[in-house]
Amino acid sequence: MTTPIPRFFAFAIGLVAFGIQLVADEPSAGLERFYIGTYSGAIYKSTLNLGTGTFGASSVAVSTTDPSFVAMTPDRNFLYAVNEGGAAVVAFSVDKTNGTLKRLNQRSSNGASPAHVVVDASGRNVIVANYSGGSVTVFPILTNGQLGVASASVKHPGTGPLAHCTTLDANNRFAFVCDKGLDQVRSYVFDAAAGTLVTNTIPFVAVAKGSGPRHMTFDKEYKRAYVICELKSTIIGFDYDAANGVLTPFQSPLHTVSTLLPGATSGGNTTAEIVVHPSGKFVYGSNRGKNTIAVFTVNPEDGTLTQVQQQSTGATPRNFAIDPTGAYCIVAGQTSNDVRLYAINSENGQLSDTGKKFTVAAPVCILPFILEPPQPVITARAARENTFELEIGNSLNLLTYQLYQTTALAPATTWNLLATGSRGQTNFVLTNSQPLEYFRVGVLTNY
């Protein structure tokens, strides 16, 4: 999306006005909001202050039955939750001011025990994985956010399929479904406009028998994918052929790496969630039973993983999320009935317990997003004759900035778009063509 957030920082600069820094007394470090899916009859909400590393108050966003997994549209206007016990998926509108949710409508998930829901990148469809019976259903999102009649429903073949999650590739063209019962990751051609799923030419990639593939995630460049296997406590790495929607395993030895300590057996442990750090340098997987988050570094040459830490968590870390800035890991302890915060070391990816936590009954899904981006700190200095350099500080490498210019300020000032940076760009060299020019910086809604 390219609509600037109405959060700008404006200042004037003339031909000789260089070497100045413009900054508020205490620039905001940013604020995140996150939703919590639970087994306790409600979706909860809370916030994370990125400057202090503290949680805000938690409260009920909406009461609803069995909302174990949740997902949002890219514009964050609507949220969708599976009703796991009721074999349904429910649509909600989002009050962006206070984060409360309003129920819109509900549809049968066309299967039993829906375990996962995702919104495609276009924001036009909801895809639900039905665990029991192994099926996947696509629902169109209507203009008012309600769920339309299912546009596709695919049942997995074979004996005892258990569809656990759906993961879409960068082009929104292929959908991959981890089937724990079949020990397969199945591949579908996805048409967002039609809301259809068609079995791919190469329909699946198999994993070792009894592994139980549960969740899958791509790296930040969508060149590789990682699948966490629930029953064997392993992670499998794959190279990804984006042209054909084909996964090829690469992680050694035997294409797997354990989520446990060296020499430990998987007895009494099952894995749950897997996440790649926004930097692409680290991978995290949760162990239920051992009650840890396993931390891995990623070899940038071949994508292979090396374990560097086992971080203790609350009981049964069913789900966790790395916040969009990459600074924190938020962990849902399903049976310790809490949400805990861990700081991430940007150099080695390791976690440290901040001691910050709050109580929520049976949390099982964490969905964070940036609510207020950090306030930019802008430095201007001469670059060469009639040019100047703007440096944006207090930024995040996931943000995209736009610069606007005007020659005079008035109540009805028209700001002209001067430059759009690339994602993460914070340095701009501009021509100073007027005796006095005013500039402002906007943050694009691309996070």
Summarize the entry for a quick read.
The chain is mainly β and 447 residues long.
Question: What does this entry look like structurally?
Answer:
By secondary structure, the protein is mainly beta. It folds into two domains: 9-26 and 378-443, Immunoglobulin-like (Sandwich), CATH 2.60.40; 31-372, YVTN repeat-like/Quinoprotein amine dehydrogenase (Methylamine Dehydrogenase, Chain H, 7 Propeller), CATH 2.130.10. It is 0% helix and 55% strand. The chain is built from no helices and 38 strands. The strands form nine sheets. Strands 3, 4, 5, 6 and 32 form a five-stranded antiparallel β-sheet that branches. Strands 19, 20, 21, 22 and 23 form a five-stranded antiparallel β-sheet that branches. A four-stranded antiparallel β-sheet has the order 1-38-35-36, with no helix packed on it. A hairpin with a 2-residue loop joins strand 33 and strand 34. It is globular and about 75 Å long.
How many strands, what sense, and barrel or not for the largest sheet? Answer: 5 strands, antiparallel
Could you state the CATH homologous superfamily of the largest domain? YVTN repeat-like/Quinoprotein amine dehydrogenase
Total DSSP E strands: 38
Estimate the mean pLDDT confidence: 90
Counted by DSSP, the helix tally is: 0
Inertia-based shape: globular
Backbone structural class: mainly beta
Which strand-content bin applies to the residues?
Answer: over 45%
Unreliable sequence segments: 1-24
How many structural domains in the coordinates? 2
Radius of gyration: 23 Å
CATH class call of the largest domain: Mainly Beta
What is the fold named in CATH at topology level of the largest domain?
Methylamine Dehydrogenase, Chain H
Distance between the termini: 9 Å
Helix fraction, binned, reads under 10%
Under the CATH scheme, the architecture of the largest domain is 7 Propeller
